[in-house]
Design goal:
alpha+beta, 6-stranded antiparallel sheet, 5-stranded antiparallel sheet, 2 helices, 11 strands, rod-shaped, coiled coil, secreted, C1q domain-containing protein
């Protein structure tokens, strides 16, 4: 555009000079115009070359910044993952209920409400934990998984309904190691019994309370504000 304007101006001046009738060397004037035109064209070429080069440099810089931003974002996400894992490890260290490596595992849980239909060979799920040091007792399944080898003491209490008879067992894996009967058949009141079992266990053994598979229960297992059917256990030092 600049070159076209310069050429138009040059032709305009030439016309003025021609019309004025002055003694001017037109060939020399046209030569000067041609040289200046060529100089301007070269300058414009250089300018365009520099503009293209700057555009390319800006594009490269933008891509570099974008790449570095993506790398920074990825590193930030990795840092957050590491922080979350550190928080989990820290909670496990300070909260014994979430760690299976506690030195003295112990638990105590009771039935929140009566078990109104105690079928034979049914695991009694004591669903309300008061103590669960080591987190080895699973309230959803009613199972205590031994966190480390040692000698353990277990106790369970069953409250029968009036005129009820409840047969229960404590089981390690699939082997019963103790049994109990809660008998109120001749009574119009609730009846409570408690039994204790002591056994050396290995890590990974599973302990639970179940109804006797060979005896049918009468009535139901009671539990309420004034009496609790419960299950507890702890390791001996």
């Amino acid at each position: 555009m600049k070159l076209q304007v310069y050429v138009v101006c040059a032709l305009f001046l030439t016309t003025i000079v021609f019309c004025s009738g002055s003694n001017v060397d037109y060939d020399e004037l046209l030569s000067v115009i041609a040289k200046n035109t060529e100089t301007i064209r070269k300058l414009e070429d250089k300018l365009n070359h520099h503009e293209i080069k700057h555009v390319e440099q800006i594009s490269i810089l933008e891509n570099t910044i974008k790449s570095q931003g993506e790398t920074l974002n990825s590193q930030w996400n990795q840092l957050e993952d590491i922080r979350n894992k550190c928080r989990q490890f820290k909670r496990a260290d300070v909260d014994p209920s979430t760690s299976s490596n506690s030195s003295d595992p112990a638990f105590y849980a009771y039935l929140e409400a009566p078990e109104t239909n105690p079928k034979s060979n049914m695991v009694v799920k004591f669903d309300t934990p008061i103590t669960n040091i080591g987190g080895a007792y699973n309230i959803e399944k009613g199972l205590f998984t031994v966190p480390r080898k040692g000698v353990y003491v277990f106790s369970w209490t069953i409250v029968s309904s009036d005129r009820g008879v409840i047969f229960t067992q404590i089981v390690v894996n699939s082997e019963p190691i103790g049994s109990m009967i809660t008998h109120a058949e001749q009574s119009y009141d609730f009846h409570t019994t408690t039994t204790v079992a002591v056994k050396e266990l290995n890590q990974g053994d599973v302990v639970f309370i179940r109804t006797n598979p060979h005896s049918r229960a009468l009535g139901y297992i009671n539990s309420g504000v004034h009496f609790r059917s419960s299950f507890s256990g702890w390791s001996l030092k």
